[in-house]
């Protein structure tokens, strides 16, 4: 039963206005309310799984139909508050860094503190603020950590549209932002959904993907995606994709960088998203020479921890193979070879071959 303070449409509408104000006070760029209808995405998602486009991410095939029914994930859910937060620091180079082949390129969301921790904390603060206003509202906060179709929910909330690169785009900020959700049992008035996807005839993200990972518009083959390969994938990187990875050692931003909507990107003022340990501009050789203790110390509280030290070395070995040929690069690879794991050794040998005249 609703508290008497929310007994009229007017008081509920005012609560939504307050929630959007509070969201900005907690650092979110936007908050919108939706009553999601997600069953329409079920067939396409099943087809994507059946085609094996989820690669080694078996967890995406788990949980049955739960991702299409938010009320199963959190019983009593009547609405979802969809929120986004900018993460790109103004001082951080993007295209310029990709073009400097002896420098490492790390996806710009991963340069600072793990966004899961930051955004989850802010979502919880917002949910408790709502609770202070209306009492217990049966909420649960999520940040990319459960079977949730977060981009579809955001699209239905009117926040933007899903682009051909499968990312959420908005004319207000391109796609340089992260999403989070609050599931609630409050019957809040909903925002108008997005009804048009404004990509038009543009195919920049599809044609300029370094590894041709897009099967067609809105369909990504994760097994070819550099973000998957450098973060989620365990084992050897397919040989035919290594030379295409360039200096990208953790994640990939290319399909954002070439998107025309990127010109509307907004920058973040959040300290936690600022680069740590010079990760936005560090030499590949410097990072490759980290031992495991250094890796663990310098990636504490960072999303980079997810890939693990061995895969970190694997990724950098490939990048060094794609770097300009010089004595320092060759010696660095040769010096690492004797003590490398079998997995890393395979990629070091490949990298050295790239610097050997044919």
TrEMBL record:
It comes from the Bacteria. Pathway: tRNA modification; tRNA-queuosine biosynthesis. The active site is at residue 144. Residues 186-219 form the 4Fe-4S ferredoxin-type domain. It catalyses: epoxyqueuosine(34) in tRNA + AH2 = queuosine(34) in tRNA + A + H2O. It is an enzyme of class 1 (oxidoreductase). Binds 2 [4Fe-4S] clusters per monomer. The keyword Iron-sulfur applies. Belongs to the QueG family. This is Epoxyqueuosine reductase.
């Amino acid at each position: 039963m609703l508290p008497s303070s929310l007994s009229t449409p007017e008081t509920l509408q005012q609560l939504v206005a307050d929630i959007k104000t509070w969201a900005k006070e907690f650092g979110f760029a936007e908050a919108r309310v939706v009553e999601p209808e997600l069953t329409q995405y079920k067939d396409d998602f099943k087809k994507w799984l059946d085609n094996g486009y989820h690669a080694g991410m078996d967890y995406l095939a788990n949980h049955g139909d739960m991702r299409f029914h938010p009320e199963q994930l959190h019983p009593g859910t009547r609405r979802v508050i969809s929120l986004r937060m900018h993460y790109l620091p103004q001082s951080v180079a993007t295209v310029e860094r990709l073009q400097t082949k002896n420098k490492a390129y790390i996806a710009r969301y991963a340069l600072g503190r793990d966004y899961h921790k930051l955004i989850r904390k802010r979502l919880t603060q917002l949910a408790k603020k709502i609770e202070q206003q209306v009492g217990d509202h049966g909420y649960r906060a999520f940040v990319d950590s459960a079977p949730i179709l977060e981009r579809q929910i955001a699209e239905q909330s009117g926040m933007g549209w899903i682009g051909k690169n499968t990312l959420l785009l908005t004319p207000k900020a391109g796609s340089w932002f992260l999403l989070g959700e609050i599931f609630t049992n409050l019957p809040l008035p909903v925002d108008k959904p997005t009804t048009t996807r404004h990509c038009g005839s543009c195919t920049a993200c599809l044609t300029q993907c370094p590894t041709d990972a897009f099967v067609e518009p809105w369909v990504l083959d994760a097994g070819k995606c550099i973000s998957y390969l450098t973060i989620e994938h365990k084992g050897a990187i397919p040989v035919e994709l290594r030379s295409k990875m360039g200096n990208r050692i953790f994640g990939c931003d290319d399909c954002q960088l070439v998107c025309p909507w990127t010109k509307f990107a907004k920058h973040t003022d959040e300290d936690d998203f600022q680069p740590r340990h010079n990760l936005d501009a560090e030499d590949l050789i410097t990072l490759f020479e980290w031992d495991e203790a250094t890796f663990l110390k310098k990636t504490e509280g960072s999303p980079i921890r997810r890939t693990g030290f061995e895969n970190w070395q694997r990724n950098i070995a490939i990048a060094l193979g794609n770097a300009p040929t010089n004595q320092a690069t060759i010696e660095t690879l040769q010096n690492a070879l004797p003590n490398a794991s079998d997995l890393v050794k395979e990629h070091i040998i490949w990298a050295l071959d790239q610097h050997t005249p044919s």
